[in-house]
Amino acid sequence: MKLNHLIVPGAAALLFIGCNQTPPQPNYNTTRRVSDQISNPVNNPNGQVSPGSPQQGGIIAEIVNYQEPTPYSYPAGYNDPTLAPNKHLLVWTTNPAQEATISWSLPDLIANTQHNVYLSEQQRNGSQLNLYEMKVPAQESGMDQACNSQLPIFQSRVTGLKPNTTYFYVIESNGQQSQEMHFVTAPANSTTSFKLFSGGDSRSDPGQRVVMNRQISSLLSQDSSYLALIHGGDFIESGSNCEQWSTWLDNHQSTMTSKGRVLPVVATFGNHESGGEAQFTALFGDPLGGEKFYFNTKIGSLDLIILNSEISVEGTQRQWLTTTMNSLAKQATFIIAGYHRPAWPAEKSPGSTTSWIPIFEQNQVDLVFESDGHVLKQTCPIFNNACNPERGIVYVGEGGLGVAQRGASQSGQWYFEGGYAIGQHHIQSLSFQMNSATPQIEYKVYYDNTSHYPLTLRKRNR
User: Fold this and answer.
1) Membrane-spanning regions, if any (predicted)?
2) What SS3 class is residue 226?
3) Is 260 left (phi over 0), alpha (psi -120 to 50) or beta?
4) Fewer beta carbons under 10 A from the terminal one: N or C of the chain?
5) Among the four given CATH numbers 3.40.50.300, 1.10.10.10, 3.60.21.10, 3.30.70.270, the one describing domain 194-458
6) Would you kindly state where each structural domain of the chain is located, as residue ranges?
7) Would the CA dihedral through 160, 165, 168, 171 be positive or negative?
8) What residues form DSSP beta bridges with 15?
9) Where are the alpha helices (DSSP H) in 164-260?
10) Pairing label, strands 265-267, 226-231
11) 235: which residues sit within 8 A by CB, 6+ positions away?
């Protein structure tokens, strides 16, 4: 069945998947061979509105009823909020099936007090810390030094975790303890289904940032199969501004559910982080050292490559990417790459990241995350500078987690035939479906309490 996907551009847009209507040209057919098929979402010919309605055979995308998270319920031992742990953050880097970095700040540091994280596979409600099977001491992350004693951040680097397991944890710091929170480790095998969020550019509007965070929290509350957020960079306006980082951390608490579910962050270095390398390292780590901020990680069936568009894309980074890709392509189920500055922009000019395109194409990457443009976009499947439904790679982005959106000035480019480019805050959702005969990624975008632009990527034959 041929699906014509219609869009009404604008902030209040609704998506209709018209089964019987024919949209105006150009209409790019993006059907791949059965073993490597993509169902393309939207035809947006230069912003024109295509006919179609639910009454004409369309299907309205699912509606998500967002709800404000309820206030936290703290344990009886939580006595003094002015001293208690706050600004909670959980980070994944190279081994999310077995490791996590748990961070927090303190409003006022008391000397000679203990700083620990207690973890258990069972819900303990924080009442008796001796019942938690794991106790991991914390150390200062380096943020206090980078911020001239303005923002102390403590971290516990937790190792030896079990894959695909829920861990409940409590932070003890300053003689106080946090509420009990929990997270789920990544699966280690390639047969477990799961979901991820993705998005970038949360930098310059804290109010809108909180709106997007609350939507993430609501989606996570409704669907516990979401495991983490892949952030595409530009967390804040100025990477060396510790007050902005403090505000971002406060705003980030809105992603936590009312039941204490914490969403791990996989971080990408953006251009607005430049100059704040020390702060970025203190919060999110630097797995390969030397302020490279590129690495690869595995989340179940996904091999995820995080690149750094703010240093040279040639030399050491390109060689690392080539070697890593060549190794992964031989055994990977899905490969996704992510970085900040777009190679196929909907706004601005192409970045130096175009240098990586041949490596992506040679190794048949499944999807690429881009940010920086402050628009919502999806390209046609691109291969060798042309739309190619057989071997092409779809590029999505470009940053809608809070920053003011732009007008998608490049929306008329050839690579948006069969795709779309509009100014719209958004959250990207990826569902890795491993239960079907052919494993697949189901991608869609959330905004205005609605899911839009469904896209299915079936496992490639590499």
Assistant:
1) none
2) strand
3) left
4) N
5) 3.60.21.10
6) 101-184, 194-458
7) positive
8) 7
9) 206-222, 242-252
10) parallel
11) 202, 203, 245, 248, 267, 270, 272, 273
Task: Return d(Cα 284, Cα 89) in angstroms, integer.
Answer: 9
CA 443/CA 376 separation, integer angstroms: 14
pLDDT of 81: 65
Chunked in runs of 10, what are the mean pLDDT values of the chain (462 residues)? 27 27 29 29 29 25 48 51 87 98 87 88 94 96 92 96 98 91 97 98 95 96 97 98 97 96 98 98 96 98 98 98 95 97 97 98 98 98 97 97 96 97 97 93 94 96 88
Radius of gyration of the chain from its Cα atoms, rounded to whole angstroms:
22
pLDDT in the model for residue 80: 67
DSSP per-residue string spanning 328-377 = HHTT-SEEEEE-SS-SS-SSS---GGGGGHHHHHHTT-SEEE--SS-SEE
Asked if 364 contacts 330 with a C-beta cutoff of 8 angstroms, the reply is no
Count Cβ atoms below 10 Å from residue 211 Cβ, excluding itself. Answer: 16
- Give the span between the Cα atoms of 56 and 54, in whole angstroms: 5
pTM of the model: 0.86
Beta-bridge mates of residue 367:
336, 394
DSSP-derived 3-state class of residue 239 = coil
DSSP 418-462: TSEEE----EEEEEEE-SSSS-EEEEEEEETTEEEEEEEEEPP--
**Residue spans of beta strands (DSSP E) within 284-333:** 295-299, 302-306
Residue 373, both tokens? 């443009």
DSSP assignment of 125-179? TTS-GGG-SEEEE-EE-SHHHHTTTS--EEEEEE-SPPTT-EEEEEEEETTEEPP
End-to-end CA distance of the chain: 27
Please list, residue by residue across 238-260, b when 16 or more beta carbons sit within 10 angstroms of its beta carbon and e when fewer do. Answer: bbbbbebbbebbebbbbbbbebb
Say if residues 20 and 27 touch (Cβ distance below 8 Å): no
Residues whose CB falls within 8 Å of the CB of residue 130, separated by 6 or more in sequence, listed in order: none
DSSP code of 3?
Answer: -
Q: What is the reported pLDDT for 67?
A: 53
